Amino acid sequence: MAQLGAPPMQSGTSLIAYQFCERPDQKGPNMSSVTPNSPLLEFIHDFSASDLQPRMRHEAKRLLMDLIGVAAGGSTTKMAQIMKNHAARHYGGGAAKMLCDGRSVNALGAALAGGATIDSLDAHDGHRLTKGHAGAGVLPGLLALWQSEAQGGRSDDDFLACFVIGYEVAIRVGIAQHATCYDYHTSGAWNALGVAALGARLGGQTGEQTRHALGIAEYHGPRSQMMRCIDFPTMLRDGSAWGAMVGVSSAYLAQDGFTGAPALTCEAEAVADIWADLGQSWRFLEQYIKPYPVCRWAQPAIAGAEALVQAHGLCAADIEAVEVATFHEAVRLQGYAPANTEEAQYGLAFPLAAFLAKGRLGAREINDEGVKDADSLAMAQRITLVEDPHCNAVFPAQRLAKVSLKTTKGVFESGYVAASWDPESPPSDTDLIAKFNALSGDWWSATHGAAILGALGPLTQDSLDLNPMLDLICQDRSPGV
């Protein structure tokens, strides 16, 4: 497993060279030669903890910690509570404890509930070229499978190896699917394959069974309409709950002899270049992490406003009008007067207004109570959103915004700004621990959060005390202190 460097980011338009979606004037795709011993299948089954170089291990632990914190923060939402109760009622009888809950259900229910819990708070990591989120499906799927399939048979280090495999497969499928499909689908459509790969690995499946698991997950993964949920935000979110559940189910079906190969996003010749450097370059190292619990598309504007506020010593009373020039999809977020946290998290105007009005933007500013805040609502009415041709041209490889503040002290402009904590300017470990503490403290006590960090071990070291960590993160709420 050679170099750590990943290939440079491609522009959004260059990826549309591959198209094998069904149209009346098209023939089916040409298929590459995938056998039970292909590099993809070998990677799924043979990649081991010894292949985790220090930077990879460090980043895997950072992403793991971040997702656990997001799950804790998400557990405060109505969406997560509904889904956990749904899983407890309808998916009982298994050995998998639900994330941030503790009740035991089967693996499908644990994956579904865990995916919804993480997806309910839009603070999780993502990848620009997938336009979505691998970890929101991969972690709950891995947790459900690990508790159901791997007890006593695998090392703590193998958990991290599986975590990396799930990310790497899911991200590459996501890039391939966006490059070859006309619709803009949710993350569950492709992170399902990352989970299916883990199910095949942990279940000891053959190469042929693994092909079928991937094919089933691709076919049944939720090709849900992302822009519908942007325009009409609800608890449907990004499909990762169903992606995680479909991935688990697909692996189990393939193990029972159900067929579904080939997965076109893995095997079609048109996407062969996306898989050519698998195990050599690492796409999971290209993850961005969110400083704010709202859609990534809104975050460049918030970052631009934050820079102006800090540079010019501004407060809410100074701000008379705000203009945000950004890409089309971000303008579609709108969200001036959200009715609930779903609308706030998939908004731009209100989260930006909440930051300007309150001087911070955490989960409390955009939860079901925060959206009623009079100061934030009034600030939102001073914001204008406009499309910018340059921002449109570089999306999705770059997500940019340009912010102009008309204030009592003058007019200040940010220039083009990217979101904070992109892979080129990642957060420090200290930044991530602070984020973890802020989010986990809304669900668990400070003592409980500290115990999780202790089991995870120093982010720069190899140590991981897995079983205590699993026990801690699969527990119900503890009172804050």
| pLDDT < 50 stretches | 1-22
Class based on secondary structure composition and strand pairing: alpha+beta
Mean pLDDT: 91
Q: How many domains in all?
A: 2
So, the CATH homologous superfamily of the largest domain?
2-methylcitrate dehydratase PrpD
User: Helix fraction?
Assistant: 40-55%
Number of helices: 21
In short:
The protein has 481 residues and is of the alpha+beta class.
List keywords for this structure.
disordered N terminus, alpha+beta, single chain, two-stranded antiparallel sheet, 2-methylcitrate dehydratase PrpD, 4-stranded mixed sheet, 481 residues, 21 helices, 60s Ribosomal Protein L30, Chain: A
Topology overview:
Layout: H1 39-46, H2 54-74, H3 78-90, E1 96-97, E2 104-105, H4 107-119, H5 135-149, H6 156-180, H7 188-202, H8 207-220, H9 226-231, H10 240-255, H11 264-267, H12 272-275, H13 299-312, E3 319-326, H14 328-331, H15 341-345, H16 349-358, H17 374-380, E4 383-387, H18 389-394, E5 400-407, E6 410-418, H19 429-440, H20 446-456, H21 466-473
Parallel strand pairs: 3-4
Antiparallel strand pairs: 1-2, 3-5, 5-6
